[in-house]
Design a protein that fits this description.
Layout: H1 15-23, H2 25-38, H3 48-65, H4 74-79, H5 81-101, H6 103-128, H7 137-160, H8 179-206, H9 211-230, H10 234-258, H11 266-270, H12 276-299, H13 307-312, H14 321-328, H15 330-338, H16 347-352
Length: 356
C-alpha cells in the first residue's frame, strides 16, 4: 500500500523552517525535560535566569510580535482601524474595572483568557496544516474536538487536584469536584481512539496522511499532558508552556511577513533574508522594557536584571495598582483579543501569499 506523506506540501514557509520552529519545539522540550527529570536534575522552581530565558525572552517577546501584524502593518491599520483603536481601550477599561472590583478576579480572568488563547493557537495551527486535505465535515469536527480534548483534559486535572504550579498567581483557577476528572479521562481516551480510527480509515481508503497536522495534534497532547499531569513541576510546566507556544507564534509572524510581496521601511530590515536576528532583538528590547516596569512597580523580584528596581524598591505603589496593573497588562490583553482576528486572511493577502 502506497501512502503520500504528507498529502500535499502544506508548509507555511518551508519544510525545514516549519519543522524546526513550529512542529519540533514541544517534542524537543518534552524530551529534554524527561532526561532532566530522570536524572533527578529538575529544578524546584524557575530561578531568575531561567525566568529571563523563558518568560522574558520568549513569552513576553511573542506578545510584541503581534505588533508587526497589527499596529506596525500599514494595510491592517487601514482595513482594521476601528478594531485596532477600540481593542486597547476596551481591554484597559475592563481591566481597571475588574481590578478595582477584586485583584483576585482580575488575575483569574487573565489566567482563563491565557488558557483560551493558548488552546486557540493549537487549533489555529491544526487548521493551517489542514489546508489542502479533503475530508468530510465530521472528520474535520473530530480534528477540532481532539485539539480541545487534548488541552482541556489536563486543565480539568489542574482544576480537580492540588497543584504546585500556577499560571499567574496562586489559586488562579476554580476548584472542581474530583469526579469531573474521571469523566474527562473517559472522554479523553474515547476521543483519542476515534481520532486514531479516523486516521487509519483515511490511510487505508484514501491513501492520505497529513503529517504536519498530526504532528501539531501530537505535539499539543505531549506538551499539555507532560507539562501539567506528567511532571507537575513549575519549571517543567513553564518550559513546555512557554516554548511550545511562544516560539511557533513568533515563527509564524516572521514567516507570514516574509511572504509579503511588498516589503519596505523597517519591514525590509526585519523580514528580509537573513534578518531574523534583528526581528528577535526588537522583540527582546520591548519585552525587557515592559518587564522592567513590572518588576520596579509591582513584583520587585529581579533587581539583578532590572537596575530600575533597585532605585524604587523602597517605594510602595500598591495604592495605584488598580489602574497601573491593567496598564502594564495592556500589551498582553490586547494580544489575546487581536489574535482572534489577525489570522483571518484578507482577499489581498490571499493573492500575495500562499502555502508552500
Amino acid at each position: 500500500m502506497k501512502m503520500n506523506l504528507p498529502i500535499v506540501p502544506n508548509f507555511i514557509h518551508s519544510a525545514s523552517s516549519d519543522f524546526f520552529f513550529i512542529l519540533l519545539p514541544p517534542f524537543l522540550v518534552a524530551l529534554v525535560l524527561a532526561g532532566v527529570h530522570a536524572g533527578g536534575w529538575m529544578p524546584d522552581s524557575v530561578d531568575a535566569w531561567a525566568w529571563a530565558l523563558l518568560v522574558l525572552a520568549v513569552d513576553v517577546s511573542h506578545v510584541y510580535s503581534t505588533l508587526y501584524r497589527t499596529y506596525w502593518d500599514a494595510a491592517r491599520r487601514k482595513h482594521q482601524a476601528i478594531l485596532l483603536l477600540l481593542t486597547p481601550i476596551f481591554c484597559y477599561t475592563a481591566g481597571v474595572f475588574l481590578y478595582a472590583l477584586s485583584a483576585g478576579a482580575f488575575w483569574r480572568i487573565m489566567a482563563y483568557l491565557a488558557v483560551f488563547h493558548f488552546i486557540r493557537q493549537q487549533y489555529g495551527f491544526m487548521r493551517l496544516y489542514s489546508r489542502g486535505q479533503m475530508q468530510p465535515k465530521y472528520f474535520r469536527a473530530l480534528d477540532a474536538c481532539t485539539v480541545y480534548v487534548l488541552t482541556l483534559h489536563p486543565m480539568v486535572y489542574w482544576h480537580t487536584h492540588s497543584m504546585s504550579i500556577q499560571w499567574f498567581t496562586a489559586h488562579d483557577f476554580f476548584t472542581l469536584p474530583s469526579w469531573m476528572y474521571a469523566l474527562s479521562q473517559a472522554l479523553y481516551l474515547a476521543c483519542l481512539v476515534l481520532y486514531f480510527c479516523k486516521e487509519a480509515y483515511l490511510i487505508y481508503h484514501s491513501r492520505q496522511f497529513n503529517l504536519n497536522k498530526n504532528l501539531v495534534i501530537l505535539g499539543t497532547g505531549v506538551s499539555w499532558y507532560a507539562g501539567i499531569i506528567l511532571f507537575e513541576e513549575d519549571f517543567a510546566f513553564t518550559a513546555l508552556n512557554v516554548l511550545s507556544h511562544g516560539i511557533p507564534y513568533m515563527a509564524l509572524v516572521w514567516m507570514t511577513a516574509r511572504k509579503e510581496t511588498a516589503v519596505s521601511g523597517i519591514k525590509k530590515i526585519l523580514f528580509s533574508k537573513g534578518s531574523v536576528l534583528w526581528f528577535i532583538l526588537s522583540l527582546l528590547l520591548l519585552a525587557y522594557v515592559e518587564e522592567g516596569w513590572w518588576d520596579a512597580l509591582v513584583w520587585q523580584e529581579h533587581a539583578t536584571l532590572f537596575p530600575l528596581s533597585r532605585y524604587l524598591q523602597d517605594f510602595d505603589f500598591s495604592g495605584i495598582w488598580w489602574w497601573l496593573i491593567p496598564l502594564l497588562s495592556l500589551p498582553q490583553t490586547t494580544h489575546y483579543v487581536l489574535d482572534g482576528f489577525i489570522w483571518r486572511r484578507t482577499s489581498q493577502e490571499k493573492k500575495n501569499t500562499s502555502v508552500s
